[in-house]
Amino acid sequence: MSPTKPRVFSGIQPSGELHIGNYLGATRTWAQQVAEQKEELIFCIVDAHAITVEYDAKELKKRTLDLAMDLVACGLDPEKCTLFVQSDVREHTELAWYLATATPMGDLGRMTQFKDKSEGKEFVSTALFTYPVLMSADILLYKATVVPVGEDQVQHLELARETVRRFNYRHGEIFVEPQPRLSKTPRILGLDGQGKMSKSKNNTIALFDEPDVFWNKLRPAFTDPQRARKVDPGRPELCNIFTMHKAVSSEDQQKEVVDSCTGAKWGCMDCKKMLFENFNRELVPLRAKRKEQTPEGIVKVLGEGADKARAIAQGTMREVRAAMGIGSGAPVPGG
Ligand code: TRP
């Protein structure tokens, strides 16, 4: 049974509050795709990936539910897409083991993310090493053809594609090669201007921070260092604040920013105020939706999401188990 609409799968780690970088780079686009309904969309909170490094169990549970509520508030309407938690569908970890038989160790050792996350660590878990195998399982389980990801995940996607080829060569045409779909939004840097915006670096603004908190974080954010004083002309193309303007401000306003900044007609504070107001306007309906969410409500939503996901996952696993000769059940096809 091949799905009629293209099937899209993406995963997000519950590793902290959803911040404006996640929103502009990923979840805002996901929400647009959910509204359009041109594709079948599956979104997964990947808690089993979050446990590959040291973590706190209570904190993980809280973050998982908080993230789910944030995602619904962003527009991942559970009536129009499938939203679930990875560990609620046990087929993910089952398939990961089977796919590990078709994934070379050498390739895993070459993954940039593994090298970055393991470097200098006293304890590096086997799970961190096999992280990309679980990611392959997430995607292949649903035979998703499109996977929205950031640039940093393209290497994992390529590994998943190779796994499909190797597995299918050995066991028959079961899996489908997934294609990455890269975000069109330029990368938002941290507020300190030091690389990626990331909760672990404490350089983020949470999407659902109250407006005053939001502004207090945006106000001191890093801008073009050449603009020490208001009379110094700035370089918008090098400024993280302008990158965000490009995502949330109108064309006319973007022109105004370029003109006022390069002509030293206004200060960075004026520029940030405009950005803040535009963010605020966009976030009004999302904040309202976020306030409607409750832990009890979201647990129900995630339970239903897992049921929908599991129905697909179990179908794939029946094929996989038969093709691999695993278990006492169905015989190997054609065997
Ligand atoms: N590794 C991804 C990240 O860190 C998260 C992820 C896990 C994922 N499984 C996935 C993304 C499947 C897309 C598809 O961002």
Overview of the molecule:
The radius of gyration is 22 Å and the shape is elongated. The two termini are 22 Å apart. Strands 1-2-3 form a three-stranded parallel beta sheet, with helices on both faces. Strands 4-5 form a two-stranded parallel sheet. It has two domains: 213 residues, HUPs (Rossmann fold, 3-Layer(aba) Sandwich); 83 residues, Tyrosyl-Transfer RNA Synthetase (Orthogonal Bundle), CATH 1.10.240.10. α10 packs across α12. The chain is mainly alpha-helical and 335 residues long. It contains 13 helices and five strands. The protein binds tryptophan.
Q: Which features does this protein show?
A:
335 residues; mainly alpha; Rossmann fold; Tyrosyl-Transfer RNA Synthetase; 2 domains; 3-stranded parallel sheet; two-stranded parallel ribbon; 5 strands; 53% helix; 7% strand; binds tryptophan
Extended strand count: 5
CATH H-level name of the largest domain... which superfamily?
Answer: HUPs
Termini distance? Answer: 22 Å
- Count of separate DSSP helical elements: 13
Domains, number? 2
Average pLDDT, all residues = 96
Order of helices and strands: EHEHHEHHHHEHEHHHHH
Task: Please mark out the parts with pLDDT under 50 across 5 or more consecutive residues, or reply none.
Answer: none
Q: Beta fraction of the residues?
A: 5-15%
* Strand neighbour order, sheet with most strands: 1-2-3
Q: Approximately how much helix is present in the residues?
A: 40-55%
Q: Radius of gyration from the CA trace?
A: 22 Å
Can you identify the CATH class of the largest domain? Alpha Beta
Q: CATH topology of the largest domain, what is it called?
A: Rossmann fold
Shape: elongated
**Biggest sheet, in brief?**
3 strands, parallel
